[in-house]
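We modelled each protein-ligand pair independently. The example shown here corresponds to the deoxyuridine-5'-triphosphate entry; the chain sequence is given first, followed by the ligand as SMILES.
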Amino acid sequence: MDIRYLEDLLCSAPKGSRSNAVAAPSPKRKNRPRGGASGDNGGIETNKRPWKRAGAASGPFSGLSLCVVSQGSVTNNTVGTLTREFRDGGGQVSTHYTPGDTTHIVADASLAASWEKLDDYFSGWDDFEDVVDGAATAGRGRMPDGVPVVSSEWMSECLRRSEVVTAEAYRLTPPLHHCAAPATVAPKQQQRSSTATTETNAAAEGCSSSASPAATGKKRILTSGGHQTTGGLVATRNQRGDAARGSPSGRGAAARLMNLEGEVGARKPNVDMRRVSQGQPSSFWGPQSPNKEAADMLDGLAELCATRGGDGSVFNERGFKSAAAALRMLGTQITDIEQLKDLRKNDPERVRGVGDGAMKELTAFLAEGKGKSRAPVSGADPPAPEACLKLFQEVGWVGAVKARQLYDKGMRSIEDLRTSGRDLLTEQMRVCLNRHEDIKQRMPRSEAAEIEAAVTKVAQSICPGVICQACGSYRRGKSNCGDVDVLIRPPEGQEDSPMFLELIKELTETGFITDRLAMPEGPYTPGKPQTFMGVCKLPGEGQIHRRLDVKLYPTSMFAFAVLYFTGSGDFNMNMRCFAKSKGLKLNDKGLFKVDPFSGEEVPNSGYSCLREEDVFSALGMDWIEPKDRKGVGPASHNQQEALPQHQAIPMAEAGSYYENAEQQMQQQQQMMMQQQAEVFFREEDQVQQAICLSRGVFDASGGSVAAAAAGGGGAGAANYDGSADPDLQEALRRSVADTRFAVGGGEREVVAGGSGSTATAASSAEGNNGVGTGSEHSPVCL
DNA sequence: GCGCAGCTATG
DNA sequence: CATAGC
DNA sequence: GCGC
Ligand SMILES: O=c1ccn([C@H]2C[C@H](O)[C@@H](COP(=O)(O)OP(=O)(O)OP(=O)(O)O)O2)c(=O)[nH]1
Ligand SMILES: [Mg+2]
């Protein structure tokens, strides 16, 4: 792939004459593959060191005195975590720079990328005096000399190897011809318009931190609004490597756990178990990864793949994205392709996602003097074709193919489409074109709430007892939403009412719904989910059109539907992949067994889950808050032993397959227990624990790997051979504990029954009112 | 060389 | 079936 | 395109 395409794409400026041509970037991004981790920022990173409880002062780090320069709450971010670990290892860590004493300065993510910033940091220290417990008054003005300034990766590495690693490789490079410090936002005011093009999780107060114990105490975060680049430090190449790759001889419970994990890891290197929802590594370094430019370049290529479309483009897009994400995760700046080659050879884990394709692009990129912005080639009069394609695709329902057709017919701008292209478009495209200026904007969260309420009101008037819930980015707590995704559940027993069509009709007649993009097909079948997609507008002056999706599901599917519709898309992909690796199929209607021979869904094998939580449990997963449902990296990165990648198992090999499965069972069970224990004991998992406890779930799981699982809905279950079935399935279910999700306390109260069976006593009545699942918005146990 | 989530509506 | 979107 |  030629980089010049990218240049064309990126550099073509908005045309003066043609008002609508090549406009500002729009949020629209469709038809993507699974994302290689996008830009979310997540939570709490955890990690344990073997010497944890060992007496301090004599660890591997005695004699070191670090000055940690961090932005955000140090106690809460990962630097904080690293700090504690480091102290446990005998090192000294403070936020003060003490000439003559300080041996290393550690800069956190937010400061690592720019020397100037770091310098500012030292001069502006006063502003940060509430960081930790010190009126930090350090070397004002200039950067101290002689003391190495390193990225926090250095700390991670030291901790990982439990020895003092040379600082060289982690030194932050001073000269740094200053890669774009783009009108850098002062750390203090990071406010952003609520209708920005990027969503943040800034319902933060409401739904996030509630559970982070360390946060409560003293420090408040610097930024007022949500989004702090929370010094959210992590042991970058996160824990997995650290833990499994068994560090030194461990002691203590924690260490034991880790070693056990290591054993498992011996067979399956990737037993991270903790990641997933939480820390979103890709943005770990925030908007200022040392490799931002290179990563952006790769992301640009990804985008380019998408706009050009074609066979496999979806996967190309994903590929570039994951390479970009990997690069962003690197704490050290790559200035020479050789550095990457080394990493790929010596520490492949850290650069997972960067393959030959990306290497090729990076070679070219680095060669041509990175800082130097790529030739501002185009921007010329004939708009770059790619730019046009991209522009057209910002209109709903116009994809790569249609965009090219339009281009071939001479269209060059939105305006062209409006004046002479209308009859080239489908009805859906016409609607989206009409409303384009409105629809392309994201709406503030509050407006999404109003829209939800508007729908709810009418729905309830038509069908008392109905439940409506906005899902999607709204339920994930985002501060702005691209559309509103409303889910509807009629009261049980009324699944056959025509309320859905009535609702749409009513909303249309009142003028709330202005356009229809898609409606359920044909003759309507009771008990079947129904979907409306369209455009709506709240009454009143100054309101603009918004995309609205409404879906109705019967009660038996509702939990699955909520899970699906809450997303994120990446999260769904990962979770479904995980389910698949266990021989199951998860979709918006249920969780089913899959016949390993045919690859088909086993009839009547659906698990009965009335609440979202039941679905997590059924998969052996710990609950994940909606706000944390981000999905980490492509599932392919975790695929390692995902059993039959899905090909049906040939009859001939069935025997050995079963044997294998059976064998695995024992050790798998053990593994399960370990994990349970891990979750139970690991203090960093207080969050999860708290949630579990509050849900009254823990009692049910006390080690009992029991129950559940078993034959799905008796009937159609084992139709490919009753023999080893439940066991096989059990084995399948347990066999893959991959890194996508923390696999926790067994099956708990879920029951795998025929789809009909009203799931077991839905244990805790409250269920959802834990931390911010958006419970305040959820009228029902989800 | 294979698989990459799983599904719906439109034309 | 291909395309686009959730 | 990436991992296996
Ligand atoms: O490829 C996809 C796209 C979406 N979804 C699910 C998850 C997603 O959260 C939900 C709603 O889709 P939407 O496109 O509205 O995404 P969102 O998460 O709500 O973000 P936005 O704020 O852009 O609407 O549908 C998927 O499972 N797969
Ligand atoms: Mg949405």
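The radius of gyration of chain A is 27 Å.
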